[in-house]
Amino acid sequence: MATSGTLMPALRLGGSLTFKVLRCDFTSTPRSEGATLNTVTAALQCGGDVHVLIAGSGAGAAAAAAAQIAGVGKVLHAEGEAFAHGLAENMAAQILTLAGGYSHILFAATASGKNIA
User: Fold this and answer.
1) pTM confidence score
2) pLDDT digits (tens, 9 = 90+) for 74-108
3) Longest Cα separation, the chain
4) d(C-alpha 72, C-alpha 36), whole Å
5) 3-state secondary structure of 100
6) Which of the residues 11, 63, 83, 106 has the least number of beta carbons within 10 Å of its own beta carbon?
7) Short-list 111, 112, 103, 113, CA closest to 51
8) Are 24 and 109 in contact (CB under 8 A)?
């Protein structure tokens, strides 16, 4: 796992004047600390709405925990077996279906985040 506070650079997407930041997390257990909190903090500094994507198999508790993080305006919950093992290809495909509505997409600098980014 990456050192606390280390973030992947934001992926800038074209021309929106309203900033919306998507923070992506892929887990089946609630994680409202460490890399997730650091990335939400960075997202808040980008300005605009902060949305968190939680994708996994049995990820309902993680989505509920993400909704409790200060500053998170919306949690997007993608549930399915395709996300059970955190494969980068499946995760990237999910993110791409959502990407058009966001000015920034942030990933934590964890092995999974770097793999997907």
Assistant:
1) 0.76
2) 888 888 888 888 888 998 898 888 888 888 888 88
3) 36
4) 11
5) helix
6) 11
7) 103
8) no
